[in-house]
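Methods — Computational structure assignment.
A single polypeptide chain was analysed. Its primary sequence is given first, followed by the predicted tertiary structure written as structure tokens.
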Amino acid sequence: MSGYVNHFWEGTMNKRLAWSQIRDFFEGQWIELVDVEWNENATFPTRARVRNYAAERSSLIEKISGAREVNDAIILYVGHMSPLIEIDSKHALL
């Protein structure tokens, strides 16, 4: 991520952001969301706080694996991605 996005995230990490802001600034990233406001009829949250982010899912999982507070967290990928169905640790379908 660019330095601009890192600076943006550091300035807003304790604030709830609108989904449009999250989508714009964290495109191509895996994100951990907390304090989520979600309309039950919507595909994406209305507002949330981004607690962590990483370019790779495994990196995000590693970041949050030692955290005490993982309850009520949502992990999402922001961007376009081909559907992936994991059969087991060695096989996946696209």
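Note: Residues 3-93 form one domain.
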